Description:
Blueprint: E1 17-18, E2 22-26, H1 29-39, H2 45-48, H3 60-73, E3 77-83, E4 89-99, E5 104-112, H4 120-136, E6 141-147, H5 151-160, E7 163-174, E8 177-187, H6 191-202, H7 217-229
Parallel strand pairs: 5-6
Antiparallel strand pairs: 1-2, 2-3, 3-4, 4-5, 6-8, 7-8
Amino acid sequence: MRDLRNYKVEAPGPVTLQGRFVTLEPYEAGRHLDALWDGLGGMGVNQLTRFFPNDDFTGIDDFGAWLEKARTQSNFMTLVFRDNTSGRIVGMASYMRPDPKNGVVEVGSVAHGPDVQRSPLTTEAHYLMARHVFEDLGYRRYEWKCHNENEASKRSAVRYGFTFEGVFRQHVISKGANRDTAWFSMIDGEWPVLKQAFEAWLAPANFEPDGSQKRRLEDIRSELSQGAAA
């Protein structure tokens, strides 16, 4: 059993993470608010965030106030996704609820703009965030939670390699209604195989000339897991 008596990590701080498709930058209102609002579709952001616990945004000022409150009151470290090809801001995600004592942090408030949903860019963004958690910060557990009715989010969690752990029934009241919360996680012992799968999927050799992928991320991960167990 691993000796954790001297285990110590820090809460995630501002960081820039660069990949082939995307660069993640720590959100700064003066630099990013207008571009993030546009990249998420303006008022269309309410469709992307319909499962978030906050009320619909009334405009960019309301959206900016929510981001600032998340930073100052809820200790979110929000990263925005910059498309390396176009230079546009196209999405966001936050490190949330850090628990350095136990080495646990959550990724949440995820919103992918309409131009990059289900794209290599978003997959790489989540790979970069997970890699930072495990390799740079030394965390033991990385969580993904979502409204149990959010089928797209649950599919994404499984595709990225998070393991479904169950549903917390009547977990919270959200937007005046009950929310059951689905819980997912990945842990440090799983990360080597998950990392290999991400990197094999993201490799140029896995892409056809039209940009489609030759092999699914889930299939690569399954093959690697079977090999590791053999």
